[in-house]
Structures are given as structure tokens and as C-alpha cells.
Amino acid sequence: MALVFQYGSNATRARLLGPKRLNGHGDVIGPAETVEDYDIAFDVFSTTNKCAAGDLVPTPGRKAWGVLYDIPDEFIRGKRKDDQKTLENIEGSNYEEKEIRVRRPGREPMTSVTFLVKRDKRSTGLITGAWYVSWIVYGLREQGVPEEYVQHVVDVALETNHRAVTTGQEQSDLIRSL
Predict the structure, then answer these.
(1) DSSP labels for the chain?
(2) Phi-psi region for residue 83, left (φ > 0), alpha (ψ -120 to 50) or beta?
(3) Per-residue confidence at 167, pLDDT binned at 50, 70, 90?
(4) pLDDT tens digit string along 76-131?
(5) Which of 58, 88, 148, 153 is the most exposed place for a label (fewest CB within 10 A)?
(6) Domain boundaries, the chain
(7) Under 8 Å between Cβ of 76 and 88
(8) Which residue pairs from 142-151 have beta carbons closer than 8 angstroms and sit at least 24 positions apart in sequence?
(9) Which pairing describes strands 65-71 and 27-34: parallel, antiparallel, or unpaired?
């Protein structure tokens, strides 16, 4: 088993542990915050989600919240012979596995793994979708992450759409309602 920090759409337990992803192979530990300075960004196009997906980027003075899971090692990387998915399959070729230090409320820092967008795959001018952001918002709220951070995620999504090459007004209006 390994500790895995999920900050994007896999923050929602039902999504990550559901039948289309890890199919029940893992347990939620609870909310966690990065020890090092990171911020959420929507800087990679997801063909699965059809919009800009989440990433963590080094950002002085910011901490990112997410959900810590305990996942069997054989469901983290590689291809399984039984055709069940691993996190590496779910995240796809735009992401790479990295170690990251996180802290659960009132606990000592611990090392976990996460998946971050490869530097050369990051992009600007993308639109993120309300359906995608809702997975993050619902997952963070489900785990009791401070509402201030949840609102920050919404604000970053709105700013991403505001800076997009094409208009993301409809998605921004839906994101505001989260």
C-alpha cells in the first residue's frame, strides 16, 4: 500500500474508487495539505474530460489541499494483466508520478506520491469545465477541506476561463454556482 495525494477530479472518492477507475481498490485517509508551496492550476488538456485538467505548480506562499488515499502498489503504476486501471493509466501520458510531502490536520508531514503535469505538456489559453471542477469541489468538501481553499479552486478555474483563447463564459457561469 502507498499513500497517494489527489488534488484534482480524483479528490472525489466515488470517482477515484468507482468502477470506471480503481474499482474499490483503495481507502480514503482524509484531507491533506502540501508541505511545500504549490497552487492548483488548470494547464493541461484532458481528452477524457474534454477540458483543462488540474495540476499543481510551485507557487511561493501557497499550499494546496487534496485528499490522501491508501492505494495498493499494483494499482499505482504499470499495466495490469486483468485490464483494471492503475493511477498511471487514469492520469495518462501528460502526467508523471512525483513524491510530495503532505500534512494531515494536526499531524506530522509524510511522504506520498501524486501525479503532476509534465512541464512540456503544460499549456495556457485553455478552458476548464464546470463538470470537471465540480469533481474537485465536491471531493474537497466531502473531506472537510477549508471552504476558503475550495473557493480558491473555484476562483482559479474562473480565472483560467477568463484568460482562455476562446470564451469560457458558459462554463464560468456554471463554475460560479458551485
Answers:
(1) -EEEEE-SGGGSHHHHSSTTTTTT--EEEEEEEESS-EEEEEEEEETTTTEEEEEEEE-TT---EEEEEEE-GGGTSS--TT----HHHHH-TTEEEEEEEEE-TTS--EEEEEEEE-GGG--SS----HHHHHHHHHHHHHTT--HHHHHHHHHHHHHHHHT-SS--HHHHHHHHT-
(2) left
(3) low
(4) 999 888 989 999 999 999 999 999 999 999 999 999 999 999 999 999 999 999 99
(5) 148
(6) 2-176
(7) yes
(8) 142/12, 142/13, 143/11, 143/28, 143/30, 143/31, 143/67, 144/30, 144/31, 145/31, 145/65, 145/66, 146/65, 149/64, 149/65
(9) antiparallel
Q: Torsions phi, psi of 50, nearest 5?
A: 60, 35
**8 A C-beta contact, residue 44 and residue 52:** yes
pLDDT at residue 168, as a whole number: 67
Name 44's Cβ contacts closer than 8 Å, sequence gap at least 6: 52, 53, 55, 94, 95, 117, 121, 122, 123, 126
Give me the CATH code for the 2-176 domain, please: 3.10.490.10
